[in-house]
Amino acid sequence: MEYTNLGRSGLKVSRLCLGTMNFGPLTNETDSFAIMEKALEVGINFFDTANVYGWHEGEGITEQIIGRWLAQGGRRREQIVLATKIYGKMGKGPNEARLSAYHIRHACEESLGRLKTDHIDLYQMHHVDRDTPWEEIWQAMEQLVREGKVLYVGSSNFAGWHIAQANSIASERHFMGLVSEQSLYNLSARMVELEVIPACREYGLALIPYSPLGGGLFGGVLQKISKGRRAEDRVREAIEKNHSHLDAYESFCKKLGENAADVAIAWLLHNPDVTAPIIGPRTLGSTH
Questions:
Q1: Is residue 244 within 8 Å of 234, Cβ to Cβ?
Q2: Using CA atoms, how far apart are residues 215 and 211, in angstroms rounded to an integer?
Q3: Nearest Cα to 1, choosing from 43, 35, 48?
Q4: pTM of the model
Q5: Which domain holds residue 253?
Q6: Which residue of the set 3, 53, 123, 152 is catalytic?
Q7: 200 and 243 housed in the same domain
Q8: Do 134 and 190 have their domain in common?
Q9: Are strands 17-19 and 12-14 parallel, antiparallel or unpaired?
């Protein structure tokens, strides 16, 4: 496994990031534990989650699973760079979502409790909050950093302008600001190349692509269907829409003698602006 700096920070992360969104809804706790153990075994030290994962409002199911895995000890917590996110609705109250200082403080404490840890290595804003001023957001984040509850701050689904605005104001406050941006980026979703990637490059942010296989489209989906494996309805619709392109892609991978998923990941890793694509296996078998 290769490691690189998380943006302009001194923190080293693996070139692949373990995504945990399936833990709970699609992957049971036993299998989730096995996947995390396998990730450590192959040298992946970068784990990504979010407080809303698990998709039962307010429960933080995925964070709870990770917390119980960390609680087993064996220096598990010390071996990983743990990233989670804040923004989504975590309760029925008017202040249980988004990025007010009130919610940032409360959501961080709740995530720490579920994750059974005393600090979050990378605390990411899941979306931009246009209703909250950056002065308020940074004041809250600065306080968490001073208290040692958060080490670095990142963003997700931000536009290039949001990155520039956020880090310009952070600089005025003599605060490090954003060190990473997590964006949708794969062979068919390349909008970030217009403004987000240039902004990340200019402000020293790590780029962490999610959905690197396009929701499974670039994982050899045509070959899998030909072997009798059923695709989800949404994937079938995407296949029908992009069949000619997928056929050409899989034929190209076959000529290379490489697995289609490996080629899609390699394409991202070849980009010097990419830090660590997020891989989110549902089963231990899909990690090999």
A1: no
A2: 6
A3: 43
A4: 0.94
A5: 220-258
A6: 53
A7: no
A8: yes
A9: unpaired
User: Under a CB-based contact definition with an 8 Å cutoff, are residues 17 and 47 in contact?
Assistant: yes
Q: Can you give the CATH number for the domain in which 80 is found? A: 3.20.20.100
231 in the same domain as 165: no
Which tokens hold the place of 207?
């780029």
Q: Does one domain contain both 176 and 211?
A: yes
Q: 175 with 279, same domain?
A: yes
Backbone φ and ψ of 16, nearest 5°: -125, 140
Q: Enter the tokens of residue 66.
A: 């990770």
Q: How many residues does the chain have?
A: 288
**Residue 208 corresponds to which amino acid?**
I
The rounded average pLDDT for each run of 10 residues, N- to C-terminus, in the chain (288 residues) is: 98 98 97 97 98 96 98 97 98 97 98 98 98 98 98 98 98 98 97 98 98 92 70 77 92 96 97 97 75
Q: How many domains does the chain have?
A: 2
Copy the structure tokens of residue 55. Answer: 């998709």
- For the chain, list the strands marked E by DSSP: 3-5, 12-14, 17-19, 46-48, 81-86, 120-125, 150-156, 178-184, 206-210, 278-279
Same domain for 148 and 244, yes or no, is no
| DSSP helix/strand/coil, 6 | coil
Residue 53: active-site member: yes
CB 36 within 8 A of CB 77: no
pLDDT at 227: 64
